[in-house]
Amino acid sequence: MIAAGLAGCSSGSASNPPGLANPASVYCVEQGGEIDIVEEADGEVGYCNLPDGSRIEEWELFQSNHSSP
After folding, report:
1. For residue 38, what are the domain limits?
2. Which pTM does this prediction carry?
3. Is residue 31 part of a domain?
4. Does residue 15 sit within a domain?
5. What span, in angstroms and rounded, lies between the C-alpha atoms of 35 and 10?
6. 14 with 29: CB under 8 angstroms?
7. Residue-wise pLDDT tens for the chain (69 aa)?
8. Is residue 11 part of a domain?
9. What is the distance, to the nearest Å, from the Cα of residue 58 to the centroid of all Cα atoms in its chain?
10. N or C: which terminus of the chain carries fewer CB neighbours within 10 A?
11. Closest C-alpha among 47, 48, 28 to residue 38
């Protein structure tokens, strides 16, 4: 019975995927976009491919739609 209880606990957490890495990624997905991580000379850069076909760096998209505090 203990094994069944443990299996039940572990399968419940496996069904919950981890959250997105940052607010810019979350905002991209909320806008219907898909995230594309690209390896560039300076490191990894996240781009947001939006439903209208446009592609924008995810932080640029986020900052253009959120005012600074």
Report:
1. 20-64
2. 0.65
3. yes
4. no
5. 28
6. no
7. 455 544 444 444 444 456 656 899 999 999 999 999 999 999 999 999 999 999 999 999 999 998 766
8. no
9. 10
10. C
11. 47
